[in-house]
Amino acid sequence: MIIFNNVTKIYEDNKARALEDVSFHVEKGEFVFLVGHSGAGKSSIIRMLLCEETPTKGKVYVNGHDIGALSHKEIPFLRREIGVVFQDFRLLPSRTVYENVAFAMRIVGASTKQMRRRIPEVLNMVGLSRKAKAYPSQLSGGEQQRVSMARALANNPSILIADEPTGNLDSEKAAEIMAILEDINNRGTTILMATHAEKLVNEMHKRVITLDRGHLISDQKEGVYTIGI
């Protein structure tokens, strides 16, 4: 599903070395935490997976595609295979829950019939079936994040990238989001989650990849959050 082979990333503008000879594989159906202090390289990995950056050295493969070899026309098709959940939700404030999810489907050319079938499915998955007509301002932070998750799942991606999805939530709401993510993973979706939430990582007993200043320093199958220990 995801392969990083000896990846180094040096940014042209400031010559910063964001990643240094990083290698790891994520198999289909895995749930992997990506942890590390700010500046460790997590964001660079996510940007490469989304084809927003390419490696300076090494290779990155997503679902068999070499991201460094993709044409501009091919990139949108690969991105359809990936759902993304952000810390700050990024919902459209003037559109309802249903319309926010529909927007994600519309931009990839889904028909009205497909949207009418799929949107109730994903809203049910995240526990928001009764909130379809609500606007983001009428929802709690946890509910807004669940809308973001529904939108990320709308096009049935094989990979879900969660970038600090619990960062703006209290512990109770964060636990709810993690339960939904685990359910999504149990349905077969591969999940890569970048996070600083030590308690959640330690409770989940999932694989943990730890970065430090661009270096991969730990890859534990049933890992714990080890930064600062």
Describe the structure in your own words.
By secondary structure, the chain is α/β, with parallel strands linked by helices. The chain has a single domain (2-220), classed as Rossmann fold (3-Layer(aba) Sandwich), CATH 3.40.50.300. It is built from seven helices and ten strands. The strands form two sheets. It has a six-stranded mixed sheet, sandwiched between helices. Strand 9 and strand 10 form a beta hairpin. Helix 3 (97-106) crosses helix 4 (112-125), helix 4 crosses helix 5 and helix 5 runs parallel beside helix 6. The two termini are 31 Å apart. The relative contact order is 0.19. The mean pLDDT is 94.
List the helices and strands and how they pair.
Elements lengths: L1 E9 L6 E10 L4 E5 L6 H8 L7 E6 L2 E2 L8 H5 L2 E5 L10 H10 L5 H14 L15 H13 L5 E5 L7 H16 L3 E5 L3 H7 L2 E6 L2 E6 L9
Parallel strand pairs: 3-8, 3-9, 6-7, 7-8
Antiparallel strand pairs: 1-2, 1-4, 4-5, 9-10
Helix pairs in contact: 3-4, 3-5, 4-5, 5-6
Q: What is the chains' assembly state? A: single chain
| CATH class designation | Alpha Beta
CATH third-level topology? Rossmann fold
| Element pattern in H and E | EEEHEEHEHHHEHEHEE
Alpha-carbon distance between the two ends? 31 Å
Order of the strands making up the biggest sheet: 6-7-8-3-9-10
Q: Give the strand tally.
A: 10
- For CATH, the homologous superfamily is named as P-loop containing nucleotide triphosphate hydrolases
* Helix-residue proportion: 25-40%
What is the helix tally?
A: 7
| Largest sheet composition | 6 strands, mixed
Which stretches are poorly predicted, pLDDT < 50 over at least 5 residues? none
Helix-strand makeup class: alpha/beta
In CATH, the architecture is 3-Layer(aba) Sandwich
Number of domains: 1
